[in-house]
């Protein structure tokens, strides 16, 4: 059985997961790749794409709410547990897409990735069936405008990476909107994307009347993040082809597609994959264009 490659698109509500799935699928199709988008978010009502597999065919979010008297979050947890219990339903349909590159559009409830086991169990079962996944974690770039929000995003990314146990790429989404709040940024953009010396972030947290009350806790969080040293972000504006290519190449390396995929690619695309999408100077010129 040949390998199937794909990405598990996760992130908080409003981070742009569904928009990313649509944009990335179209971008990959332009490169000659056959792509199937799979929706495993039963509460997803605004899909910009036509899913090859839709979890609502198995279970509906609203019906779980009505039948069991659950709220939106409780029903979503139930739906994921139901999908985990019936994961063979998903695996059978995924294996019928063996010639496709898969993009999984996942729910936005972050507890499903930080505390709950169903998503990680589903990913593990897919892996056992030769589906090689990389988690793509989207974080809204607006979180950079506030030290407390940014620290929360770092904690969320670290916790998710450790919980899922998959190759992982963190994306700073909606990068095109950063110009509107660039005046609120305490540091240059590299500080936020490369996650540089977070002791500077502690100084900003101490200046905030709310977060200054938790100095020891903030310091412990910063120490934890720096000890693991796992988090960095790739900026993404879905309308920018260079940034999409950078994300695509990072994901291809993480899930192993660059070593085992079979898409038709021209020499320039192969070279871009080999060196990491774009050069540092090209990346910076693209980023600088937003400010």
Summed up:
With 291 residues, this protein is an alpha/beta fold. It has helices at residues 17-30, 61-68, 72-85, 87-95, 111-114, 118-128, 147-164, 189-194, 199-207, 215-228, 241-255, 257-260, 267-275, 280-288, and strands spanning 4-10, 35-39, 53-54, 101-105, 131-140, 168-173, 234-235.
Layout: helices, strands, pairs:
Blueprint (H helix, E strand, L loop, with lengths): L3 E7 L6 H14 L4 E5 L13 E2 L6 H8 L3 H14 L1 H9 L5 E5 L5 H4 L3 H11 L2 E10 L6 H18 L3 E6 L15 H6 L4 H9 L7 H14 L5 E2 L5 H15 L1 H4 L6 H9 L4 H9 L3
Parallel strand pairs: 1-4, 1-5, 2-3, 2-4, 5-6, 6-7
Detailed description of the structure:
This protein has about 290 residues and is α/β, with parallel strands linked by helices. The protein has 14 helices and 7 strands. The chain has helices at about 15-30, 60-70, 70-85, 85-95, 110-115, 120-130, 145-165, 190-195, 200-205, 215-230, 240-255, 255-260, 265-275, 280-290, and strands at about 5-10, 35-40, 55, 100-105, 130-140, 170-175, 235. The protein has a 7-stranded parallel sheet, with helices on both faces. Helix 7 (about 145-165) links the parallel strand 5 (about 130-140) and strand 6. Helix 3 packs parallel to helix 6 (about 120-130). It is globular and about 55 Å long. The N and C termini lie far apart (about 50 Å).
